[in-house]
Amino acid sequence: MRLRISFAKTDAMRYTSHLDLHKTWERTIRRTGLPLVYSQGFNPRPKLQLASALPLGFTSDSEVLDAWFAETDLSITQILEAMQKAAPPGLQIHNVTEIDSTKPPLQTQVRSAEYVITLLESVPNLEVCLESRLSDSSLPRQRRGKPYDLRPLIETLSLLLPDEQGRSRIAMRLSAREAATGRPEEVLAALGISPESTRIHRSHLIFDE
Amino acid sequence: MLAPSEILSRLERLLPTVQKPGRYTGGELNQVVKDWDSVKTRVALVFPDIYDLGMSNLGLAILYDLLNQCPEVLAERAFSPWVDMETAMRSIGLPLFSLESKHPLIDFDIVGFSLPYETLYTNTLNALDLAGIPLFSSDRTAKDPLVIAGGHAAFNPEPMHAFIDAFVIGEGEEVIHEIVSVHQAWREQKVNREDLLHSLAGIQGVYVPAFYRAHYNSDGTFSRMERLWEGAANPVIKRIVAQLPPPLTRFIVPYIDTVHNRIPIEIMRGCTRGCRFCHAGMITRPVRERPMDEIVNAVEQAIAQTGFEEIGLLSLSSSDYTQVVDLVQTVNQRFVGRHLSISLPSLRIETVSVDLMDAVMDERRSGFTLAPEAATERMRRIINKPVSTEQLMETARAIFSRGWPTLKLYFMIGHPSETMEDVQAVADLCKAVLAEGRKVLGGRATVHAGVSTFVPKPHTPFQWVPSETIENIRAKQGLLKRQMHTPGLKLTWTPPEETLLEAWLSRGDRRMAQVIFAAWQRGARFDAWKDGFNYQAWMDAFTETGLDPAFYTHRQRLPFETFPWEHISTTLRKKFLFDDYLRSQREETLDDCRQGCFACGILPAFAGVRRQHPGDIWKCPDVSPRPQMKAQDLTKSEALG
To answer: Which of A59, A156, A62 lies closest to A110, judged by CA?
Structure first.
């Protein structure tokens, strides 16, 4: 049985790496007592697939995990409740649905990701800055020594209303395909904003289909 | 001092800029957060190394649980920040804080340090400094937290005497509550700090250094410990619990990977084997076992509460647990197919151990570890770990033929009276073991030799012997490196400078406190880390204080020398230790003392405690007055002969 679990990663959990998040899930499911399926072989691994790695320090309320279980008598609602009860602080499970096991791996289906960035310090002329970047036809940048063009990876970029504390917020949708993944820190850098003075939140993952 | 909300908001800014920010957030599953104002006593438990290591410390986890079970008490955790975080904290004036409520450490009533080994001493000073707590006990006032420490290294507390207000000697499960109630009573009376120290010194197993003064002979050796107050105990006798309480099961589950990310269940405390180099084996007597049902149920509960994939059934010598075969079979039946890995460390070198591991390992068969400690039978008699080489080879064959491709062998060099031939034997033995592995598994077989250097420890039969010199260590390691440069053999060793540091501190006296302080001032910290250890800072510290490092390490101590740690009693008689030292010089071994009592001293000292808990929990044999006399006579005559 393949279950698709959507969840949020918040608070201290945002400093749990992608690898450690796998472990967190394995442990959460072990605490529920639900029969997680493991791979065969010398070093069995739990069958878990996360849609898209969330960089360390980002929060999100749109993460998706596929997990394989042996048949159980529990209903989907009961499974959801068991998981919610077993989840550690900072991991909130929104919902669980059963999906067709023959569907392609989750990671290959991600198309884009939406982010909301809260600026902890005010940035002058923010709106002008955003528009000027959008009007650029290319944004040459380097990552790990490799040059690439950031501009085509930016699908949307706009200003949101400030939060309750009056801090400016930027929304962006970036390509999230394999070998064509836009990074919000890179966009911030292109805007002249230091990522350390921001909070980055992934608000939505968009899949094919 | 900063309010927790201010600490939190400064912390939030720092976290994205440092490595592994998950070390500093707290908030994990099973952490306990109590209302700060609703309790009478607030205790900060500090492991003076990074989170990744400290979270694996079982002692601290037990105290955290015990204290938080008291409605009037809260306990929170703190760890040393890694170098990058320390720099960041100092640059913005962020003091050391607790992970749970983000209170600065100086706001706590009691700050307790875990000191399992000596290389945490400079980190302890650094933690106090980062917390803004005066480093020297004598500089603290009634407004400062009470600073206590415990753990195996506290059995020679003298090098740290100047920085710690009170040491707990021995097991902390009961005494921690007594310390808290003494503190509560003192707070209600609003009296001075001296009164608190007096009350603490009245608790059995608590050592308050301020009530003692050390005297030295003209040759620099220790002469005697003077009591400055008649109420202070001399000696301070260690605390033990008569019976191990049920094991902890609600462990905090870290958000990030840590050193031992697992459920640790102590199946037994103490060891009856009497390996002469082994500090733990001498200071944790008597042997007390946990009932098997209690262990199995604890594993079940801990899995439900933590979800950890790995379980460690811990003790100093697992093979000696009376029902070890039953335990392993029961654990296996109960947990098979649940994708857990169960480790049973410290197994004896015999084929039965391979059967045990075979039964217990569910999956992931990677490495098997044995600790012969020395490579020749002569040397193993000297250290009282008598295993024949044939037995070792037979065990190795069994390990490889049951499918473990890697055999890890632990050795020590620098044992008393060791020659280059004994060191050569380490290389030869590893090659012979590898050849056996190759016969069974071909090129897949590997041998990993972990070769550390022996450090003579206080309260052991080897407390009299000189440490190996740095030149000899280098020569011996050089021989091993040359001889063991072979495919399939992997050699790891301890840098000799690190060994020397451990040796200075292990058998140091009160004067070493100045060296620790001077070394810390010169930037020494993270001494247990390869990239942290600053040998030059220590050498400069010795120069500054005018002390000779070799005096502490390379001097053969005289039979009748008084040691600076003798006012701390493990209850093992000095004569018992010395006789055993003489026995080692004659290459004679001492049997497992479950078979017959050798009158180490633990039983008469704790006769009352044992009487309160009759039954089979202590593994000391019953000793009637007459055979005990006999054993003593025997020891005497041996010493004379």
So the answer is: A62
Q: Return d(Cα B518, Cα B539) in angstroms, integer.
A: 10
User: In Å, how far is A208's CA from the nearest CA of chain B?
Assistant: 31
Taking contacts as CB-CB distances below 8 angstroms, the residues of chain B near A15 are 15, 20-22, 25, 255-256
Q: What's the rounded Cα separation, in Å, for the pair B302 and B247?
A: 10
- Using alpha carbons, list the distances in angstroms from residue B177 to B69, B70, B183, B203, B453: 11, 9, 10, 11, 38
- Report the distance separating Cα B151 and Cα B273, nearest Å: 21
Which domains occur in chain B, in start order? 4-235 (3.40.50.280), 243-364 (3.30.750.210), 571-640 (no CATH)
Cα(first)–Cα(last) distance of chain A, in Å?
21
Write down the pTM of the prediction: 0.94
* DSSP 3-state of A65: strand
DSSP 8-state class, residue B31? -
Instruction: Assign B621 a pLDDT band (cuts: 50, 70, 90).
Output: confident
Q: Lowest mean pLDDT of A102-106, A202-206, B544-548, B624-628, name the range.
A: B624-628
The reply to whether A46 touches chain B by the CB within 8 Å rule is: yes
Q: Which residue has the tokens 């198309």?
A: A111
Long-range contacts of B357-361 (CB under 8 A, 24+ apart): B357/B404, B358/B402, B359/B328, B359/B329, B359/B332, B360/B328, B360/B331, B360/B332
Report the b/e string of B440-467 with b at 16+ CB within 10 A: bbeeebbbbbbbbbbbbbbbbbbbbbeb
Report which secondary-structure segment, H or E, holds B51: helix B51-54
Listed residue (B194, B179, B210) closest to B142, CA to CA: B194
3 state SS of B373 = strand
Stretch (H or E) spanning B327? helix B324-335
Cβ neighbourhood burial of B608 (10 Å; 0-12, 13-18, 19+): exposed
Paired strand residues for A68: A2
Please give, rounded to a whole number of angstroms, the shortest distance from the CA of B54 to a CA of chain A. 18
Nearest CA in chain A to B21: A15
Chain A nearest CA to B14, separation (Å): 9
- Contacts A16 to B, Cβ<8 Å: 22, 255-256
Q: Which of B365, B373, B360 is nearest to B399 (CA)?
A: B365
Contact A17 B13 (CB under 8 A): no
With a pLDDT cut of 90, the percent of chain B lying above it is: 85
Spatial contact of A7 and A69, defined as CB atoms under 8 Å apart: no
Q: The tokens of B388 are what?
A: 């024949």
Q: How far apart are CA B522 and CA B4, in angstroms?
A: 31
Mutation target among B10, B55, B99, B255 for the A interface, most CBs of A within 10 A: B255
A33's tokens: 């007592």
Please state, for a pLDDT cut of 70, what percent of chain A lies above it: 100
Q: SS3 for B598? A: coil
Phi and psi dihedrals of A190, rounded to 5?
-65, -25
Asked if the Cβ–Cβ distance from B13 to A120 is below 8 Å, we say: yes
Neighbours of B293 (CB within 10 A): 10
CB B299 within 8 Å of CB B290 = no
Q: Pick from B544, B520, B545, B514: which is nearest to B532 by CA?
A: B520
DSSP notation for B415-484: -TT--HHHHHHHHHHHHHHHHHHHHHHGGG-EEEEEEEE----TTSTTTTSPPPPHHHHHHHHHHHHHHT
| Per-residue pLDDT tens digits for A60-113 | 999 999 999 999 999 999 999 999 999 999 999 999 999 999 999 999 999 999
